Amino acid sequence: GAAQLCTTRCVIKELESLGKALYGAKLIAQRFEVRSCSHHKNPVSGSTCLLSMIEDGNPHHFFIATQDQDLSNKVKRKPGIPLLFIIQNTMVLDKPSPKSLAFVQKLQTNQLVPEYQKQSIVELKEKEGLVKQVGEKRRKRKRAGGPNPLSCLKKKKKKTQEGQEPSAEKKKRRKRKRNR
Fold it and tell me: Pick from 77, 45, 80: which is nearest to 62 by CA?
């Protein structure tokens, strides 16, 4: 579906409490859809509220957009949560964290082959003798050799008949005159 920008009441309350210095940020945040959070009666800090929204494995598939390094480090520790930040008036999507990459890799391997089938595959390989042995030889890679041996041959000398010089054998050629 389409992406929607949203914020929480706690974030707006925190921006109001910071005063006139962040008045523009507060106006921008108020334009977004306001999502209900679990602490609407007693608001907490914005970073705490956002972390509580993504606590249970991010079921709503939220992205977190922040300039706060502490919040971004906490978000990177949780798998499957994309992180946005701004560099010179441009929104940038951060690369996936190592936790997210490991989580996806684990999901993919578990989805491809269930655990009981992995055990049966190992047993069948041992039974058929397909298990790799420790002393197995590897094929050697071809390495670049020396120069082409045909390019290194010595030039052959022309054989001449006895008593005749090679210059005598050459015929005189006629030169053509051009007509202009």
Answer: 80
